[in-house]
Design a protein that fits this description.
The chain is of the alpha+beta class. 36% of the residues lie in helices and 23% in strands.
């Protein structure tokens, strides 16, 4: 918010008046003087930025985690506080490392089986006892091995989304077996980990 006390940038009329008020001849136009002033302000701003200490822009208070902190708790803290990294401090208050967004993202890719060849199967399942066991048995019956399995809960508290990475299963047999389960709905069923990058340009 600007106030009347803040200095105002001079305009063309100000430069013209300043030139006329001087008792000597200066071979410079108003446009040249305005351009020179603008460049000087840019250099001054750059010098001030280069001389600025980290203390003026760093976040406070400094949030830290312990080496035994769960990764999910650290990730939740980073998301809730909108920060990209956390210092890791041991019991002696020594810095032993830093956890970053890249570390979290890399772990997420590993948990989800990213890059691993196989089938990505997303299922909407009823939140009932025994449903997960039925899904696992169906995958095994189709000759598949579960590489990774994650659960996502949305606003529908009666159902969950299972995201499963399966390797070695007969696709047709697995799809038919899952379709036969009354409390299971196939949301997505596709090969993954075979290279999905697209180049532009």
């Amino acid at each position: 918010m600007s106030t009347s006390d803040e200095p105002k940038r001079p305009g063309r009329a100000d430069f013209q008046q300043a030139l006329q008020s001087m008792d000597t001849y200066i071979d410079i136009t108003v446009d040249d003087l305005m351009a020179l002033t603008q460049r000087a302000e840019q250099f001054a701003g750059r010098r001030a930025t280069e001389a600025m200490g980290v203390r003026r822009v760093m976040s406070q208070p400094v949030l830290t985690v312990h080496p035994q902190t769960l990764l999910t708790d650290a990730a939740h803290l980073m998301v809730s506080k909108r920060i990209s990294g956390l210092p890791v401090i041991d019991d002696a208050e020594r810095l032993v490392g830093i956890i970053t967004e890249t570390d979290i993202f890399s772990t997420l890719v590993e948990v989800l089986g990213g890059g691993e060849p196989g089938l990505r199967v997303d299922l909407r399942v009823a939140d009932q006892k025994g449903v997960l066991a039925q899904v696992a048995q169906t995958i095994a019956g189709a000759g598949g091995n579960i590489v990774s399995l994650t659960t996502f809960h949305g606003e529908d508290t009666a159902h969950s989304i299972l995201s499963i990475k399966v390797r070695g299963a007969d696709e047709n047999g697995l799809r038919a077996g899952l379709d036969a389960l009354t409390e299971v709905e196939i949301v997505d069923f596709r090969p993954s980990g075979t290279g999905c990058a697209v180049n532009f340009g």
